Amino acid sequence: MKKFASLCAAALLLAALALSGCHGRREQAAFAVPESFDASRQYEVVFWAKNDTNKTQTDIYKQAIEDFQKLYPNITVTMRLYTNYGDIYNDVITNISTGTTPNVCITYPDHIATYLTGDNVVVPLDDLFADERYGLGGSELLYDGPTQEEIVPQFLDECRLGGAYYAIPYMRSTEACYINEDFVEALGYEVPDVLTWDFIWEVSEAAAATKGADGVYSLNGQKVLIPFLYKSTDNMMIQMLRQKGAGYSTQTGDIQLFNDTTTELLKGIAAHTANGAFSTFKISGYPANFLNAGQCVFAVDSTAGSTWMGSDAPLMDIAADEVVSFDTAVRMVPQFDPENPQMISQGPSICVFNKQDPQEVLASWLFAQYLLTDDVQIAYSETEGYVPVTTRAQQNPDYQDYLSRAGEDNTTHYQVKMDAVQLLLDHMDDTFVTAVFNGSASLRDAAGQLIEDVTKSVRRSQTVDDAYIQALYTDTQSLYHLDAASPSGGKADLGPLPGTAVALLAGLVVAWILIFAYVAWQAVRRRRAEKAQKARWQGKKG
Q1: Using the 8-state DSSP alphabet, how is residue 29 labeled?
Q2: Among residues 179, 58, 154, which one has the least CA distance to residue 347?
Q3: Cα separations in angstroms, 165 against 123, 157, 229
Q4: Which residues of the chain are under the pLDDT cut of 50?
Q5: For labelling alongside 310, which of 212, 473, 486, 516 has CA 20 to 30 A away?
Q6: pLDDT (0 to 100) of residue 526
Q7: What residue spans of 275-357 are helical by DSSP H?
Q8: Whole-number pLDDT of residue 48
Q9: Which of 283, 310, 275 is nearest to 181 (CA)?
């Protein structure tokens, strides 16, 4: 019966741990930089990256992995590609609970803030940055990596969460306005060096007014025209509020989105939508498709999407016979104060996940840092309208040669893409990032949803007034759980388990105890039967 007693004790211990443990947490020891890297061991680094359908980008990842593994033959990098960052985010969240996160991940700081709600899930990088041997520009690196000072400060700042760095920037872009210059001139205007919101709305309204009684727009001779089309309405709202000096959120995570300026902006967007001047990607479709088909005057999208914009774009989603020839101008997003332009800085970053083995984490860091070397940065930035995140890559003669060949062809040096890249390079000091905290990703989604809902409501002939907007604020706060956000950006205390969950766990424990008891009872019966049979056999033998 000792075995039975031991089994019951183990079951009761499991029950105690289950019922008293921290709800929703998975604890893990904090990472400490090892004294040295053990090159005698073999490591596998699992790398999750995002790629759409750009085979060139995939090849760059593969080449980077191959070159890295030549330097570190004891480190095997296994890559898994995703089609969007949302899927990476969802899989990471799922895998945190099972302790099966990747080692290195391309992601966004807003997402990392959510990962940090687990204990020691993501490695803080400050100590690794500063390590003389394996840190940024470290003496023991087998490649020529950048120092911390050579990473563009504006890009690195976005990777700082709660007083520590939890990522390194990988690529950076901003938003740009891609313009059918022929349409603007046909309406009697000239494209200014810096767009203003007043200019955008005025020209868009003029374009919408060219619709005839037969439904055909005289501007383009078609029945379809969306004068102003915006891809990411979250960025639209965030930038408008920033330019207005209005609240969005504080650095500590206090939500300020639902304010009088937001209300004013939404009413303005509603009015222009009612006049047929504005729509969004989620409602109407991809801006590049409308622009290239001569069905749009102003299309706002990322500079990383510049290879899809314009009559000669190397990437397109529409048939060749639908493309309309026009001159494409590239400008900053519209501004309220053209003398002090402000535009958002965005783009993927790289984080390293914690593991039980510090040596495995160090191997992961060596690979993550390798992605900042000039060859990787320059090659990847040339695929789309990205900008390298290090000054050394930007100043590299190979990159400068790339910039100098703008317009030389309609592939690598496609003029619209090069204009978009130069736009960010010329205005890095005019870029900004939003505060990152647990819940900042939801806040960003909410900001865009306000514009989406207002635009959709107008198209459904609903009235957008103060009562509508206040109801919209309440619904949006509830939908995105912004009324329960953690202002400090820290870990949410989920409290004790609900009574139903406790009852379920208790039931499971009792079930296991009964199973153990049954197994033990069967073992005792079997042992007694064996003893009885042995006694009978010995009696017959005697």
Answers
A1: P
A2: 154
A3: 9, 8, 36
A4: 1-26, 485-498, 501
A5: 212
A6: 76
A7: 281-284, 287-292
A8: 97
A9: 310
